[in-house]
Amino acid sequence: MRRVRLCLIAAGAMSLAACNADPTAPRAGVTDAMIARDVAADAAATTTLDLAEMFGAELAAGIPAAPSSTTLAPTCPYSPAGRYVCPTITTPEGLSLDRSYAIYGGGTTQAAYDPLRTDSISFAASLAGTLSRGDRTMSLHHTRTMTLSGLAGLETQRTWNGIGARSDSVRVTRDGQARRTQVESVDRIENVVFRLPRSSYRFPQSGTITQDVVITSAADGAPANQARAAVRHVVVTFNGTSKATLLVGATPCVLDLVSGAVSCGQ
User: Fold this and answer.
1) Of 184, 232, 206, 223, whose CA–CA distance to 34 is shortest?
2) Which of 101, 170, 174, 195 could make an SS bond with 201 (beta carbons 3.0 to 4.6 A apart)?
3) How many structural domains are present in the chain?
4) Comparing C-alpha atoms, which of 107, 102, 75, 103 is closest to residue 89?
5) Given this model, what pLDDT does residue 22 score?
């Protein structure tokens, strides 16, 4: 069922016939190892961007990075529709970010964050632009709907959950060749917990980000009908340290949350 669903999701990127093709058959010089590395690198970049957005969203909503009875000034104007709608900003990576959020206490929308009564905040974000990392140049388009909970009172931790989709076009120069890669993915953020204060606990204590990925890849200059297609399930698991585990199918990897680098075994 997952494979059929992912094929339909990726219909804009490749044909259903390509999705049903043998995913292990090398085409246009693209091997299984290349596919695994490309999926891992894309997942690593996405994960670090997601974590940065979680922190940035908290600041935008005026939530202090440590337990406090005070609040920070929100950086976005309040809309009569019950949401804060933020102006488009440029991230430190040069990407364009649009964000909005609604604040809740006891199931009721609040006009402002209250450190004692606010229990959750719902965020919507869209991230787009071009990002270069090492041997990869990525054209990104990510959307996220995420909820931050556990806020009521002098909390000791906060929890993120959410879902999103992304469409990444990537040019990779590695393995002695240049290739074009298209990644379509449905992503889930599940119980990603940050302890407080953030200054003492920089990395998520627990939780996962899963990505159901459809990838197509072809060497530069190869015709479209020679593109390699594959489906991969990715799981990033956090453990409170700077090293998260990243599993691409059956291939184990380690993601450095500081540098964004990923290394994979066999």
Assistant:
1) 232
2) 195
3) 1
4) 75
5) 40
